[in-house]
Amino acid sequence: MKRIILIFLCMSFSNLTFASIVGVSPGGQQLMSAVTVQEDSPTNTIQQGFNEKQNVLLTTNLNYTGGTIASGTRVDSHLIFLNTEEGTKKIDTTAVWKFSGDILGIMSNGNGSDFMNSNTLFGDPNNFTIGTNTGTFNGFGLEGNDEMSFTGNTLELRMLVTEPGDWIRVVTASAVPLPAAVWLMGSGLVGLIGYSRKNKQQVVNV
Prior knowledge:
There is one protein chain. The chain is an alpha+beta fold. It folds into two domains: 1-16 and 180-206; 19-176, no CATH class. It is built from four helices and twelve strands. The chain has helices at 2-14, 113-117, 119-122, 180-205, and strands at 21-24, 28-30, 47-51, 56-57, 62-64, 67-69, 74-82, 91-99, 103-107, 147-151, 154-161, 166-173. Strands 2, 3, 4, 7, 9 and 12 form a six-stranded mixed sheet that branches. A hairpin with a 2-residue loop joins strand 5 and strand 6. Helix 1 (2-14) packs antiparallel against helix 4 (180-205).
């Protein structure tokens, strides 16, 4: 019975995890913590990404490049970037990113307006800045020979950059919280163990 309870609790807590980056092909690298991203800082030669704010409940509709995520949706955010150093020759990288939740939308338009409009919601306190400027500019997102496609929880991304780099935000579905009935079931199992132990003690004492 103890083993059953342990398995149940492990399954329960695993269902409460948020939609994080769970894998990336050799063309990319997951950063284990968020960083403040600026043009030319930090720089890289492959795509890098990290998790931003998690389990955010949208109170208004959220626009992404090509669509809208409805108010009331609970979402997680992730930032992916290829940031070249000043004067660097062209860098061409392709990576496949996987998340633990399905992709709902991506902020990737060329001047970065979709990205910047969601920055306070998802990026704070790691806001994207260009020096002291937090505005948009041409070449911010995907353009030209950049390519992107996604299905379910998988994103295939090509970034081809010289100067400036490319920055996108990926919004995924948060894990669905366990219903109250499941927790009641767990409590019932724990109570059953206690009752079983009590009965055993009574039998021994007779």
